[in-house]
Design brief:
Elements (H helix, E strand, L loop, with lengths): L2 E5 L3 H12 L5 E5 L15 H4 L4 H4 L6 H4 L2 E4 L4 E5 L4 E4 L2 E4 L2 E4 L3 E3 L13 E3 L3 H7 L8 E5 L3 H12 L3 E6 L11 H13 L3 E4 L3 E5 L6 E4 L4 E3 L2 E4 L3 E3 L2 H5 L8 E2 L11 E3 L4 E5 L2 E3 L4 H15 L11 E6 L2 E7 L6 E7 L2 E8 L2 E8 L2 H13 L5 H5 L5 H4 L3
Parallel strand pairs: 1-2, 1-7, 2-3, 7-19, 9-16, 10-11, 10-16, 11-12, 18-20
Antiparallel strand pairs: 4-5, 5-6, 8-17, 13-14, 14-15, 20-21, 22-23, 23-26, 24-25, 25-26
Helix pairs in contact: 1-9
């Protein structure tokens, strides 16, 4: 009987094992996670869960009963400490577990502030795991002062939740503008206005020098020479692929665990999916940090373990919830050289073009533009910029052009 071992406790791992069973795989499946809870959604952690609007069980991707009911041997609170590729075993919980196929869905690790600048003080938090947010919740009290370090989506979402909870929020971003790495200046400006309108003290082009305090953080010194009094700090300065296990096992590493178009690593018995995996894309390689990518790659690997020879075609999409705004993103904006703005009443979208080729769309409370843009990009269609900018344009008609 074929044995599949999956390492990870997130969306990719959950999607992979569910796909195997739904497609009729009748071999043994072992799922090993290093947290004490079954695989769960991470996006709501910095939004609904932190706000107290979602209970823990609603985070679970499948009820805890799903795994035994479907013959999936779920190991919780266990860390895989090594891979023996020759013996085809992994070490976890002090014992060797055999595999015919091993899937690494190890996700990503948040970048933390160095201890030398106060990163290990009490009251300094990241937003990545359920335990992170559970530790943070008691500190999120109305009237407290919070410093958010980092103006990416995680930092902005955390700032929005803290502002809604009544905290005094200061956000610092070392780059010239928030969202600089991932969005156009037009989108950055829109979210800057959104946050300042909700009382966030947003400081761009201002880095953190160090945190102050003996055991618990009490303040922060910024690069512009100012000092802040703070009660807590939330760090959102990016993530790195969780590749140490694969690296120690001698697998090829290229901005994450390198896989081929079918999801196989440099060892054909070992696969990888989700945030931790980089895959061929165009003339190069790419690694995507998104729910959609984790689901699609997990299901692809499951199919290919069962004998399909399907190549992965990424269809990137992302989202972010801040206050009463839903940002939906389709495509990848890398290489854009101009932006077309579409305004239709309260709905707003920014369309990224490289020459006359549509690359991506940022849609703010504009689900129609998002859905149309996503389908256009996936079909390789690029409507004229004039049509996009014209609020009278029938968007659905663009799909038939």
């Amino acid at each position: 009987m074929s044995k599949v071992v999956v390492v990870g406790g997130g969306q990719a791992a959950a999607s992979l094992v569910a796909r195997l069973r739904s497609k009729g795989f009748d071999g043994a499946i072992t799922l090993i996670g290093d947290e004490p809870v079954p695989p769960y959604q991470r996006p709501p952690l910095s939004k609904a869960y932190l706000l107290g609007e979602m209970e823990e069980e609603r985070l679970y991707l499948r009820p805890a009963t799903y795994y035994p009911e479907n013959g999936i041997d779920l190991h919780l609170n266990e860390t895989v400490t090594g891979i023996d590729r020759d013996a085809k075993t992994v070490m976890a919980g002090g014992k060797a577990i055999a595999y015919d196929h091993l899937a690494l869905c190890t996700g990503s690790i948040p970048r933390r502030l160095p201890a030398a600048i106060g990163g290990d003080l009490a009251g300094v938090f990241c937003v990545r795991t359920l335990a992170d947010v559970d530790a943070m919740c008691p500190a999120c009290v109305s009237g407290k002062k919070v410093l958010v370090v980092g103006g990416g989506y995680i930092g902005l979402e955390a700032a929005a939740v803290c502002a809604k909870l009544g905290l005094t929020v200061t956000l610092v971003e070392a780059a010239d503008r928030i969202l600089q790495r991932v969005a156009a200046p037009e989108t950055s400006a829109w979210f800057r206005d959104l946050h300042t309108s909700h009382g966030v003290d947003l400081r761009e082009g201002t880095g953190l020098v160090r945190l102050l305090g003996e055991d618990h953080v009490t303040g922060a010194e910024l690069a512009d020479g100012t000092t802040l009094d703070v009660d807590m700090v939330i760090v959102g300065v990016g993530i790195t692929p969780a590749q140490a296990l694969a690296e120690t096992a001698g697998l090829e590493i290229l901005n994450g665990i390198a896989v081929n178009a079918q999801g196989q690593t440099s060892d054909p018995a070992i696969w990888a999916a989700g945030d931790c995996a980089s895959f061929p894309h165009g003339d190069g390689r790419i690694r995507l940090e998104s729910v959609g990518n984790a689901i699609d790659m997990g299901e692809l690997v499951a199919d290919n373990i069962m004998g399909t020879t399907r190549d992965y075609t990424a269809k990137p999409w992302f989202w972010s919830d801040q206050y009463d705004v839903k940002l939906q993103i389709a495509g990848l904006n890398t290489g854009y050289d101009n932006i077309v703005t579409r305004q239709d009443g309260e709905s707003l979208s920014h369309w990224y073009y490289q020459g006359d080729t549509l690359l991506a769309v940022d849609a703010m409370n504009d689900s129609k533009s998002y859905m149309v843009g996503k389908r256009l990009i996936e079909a390789g269609k690029s409507p004229s910029k004039a049509d996009i900018a014209n609020p009278e344009t029938n968007m659905k008609a663009l799909l038939k052009a």
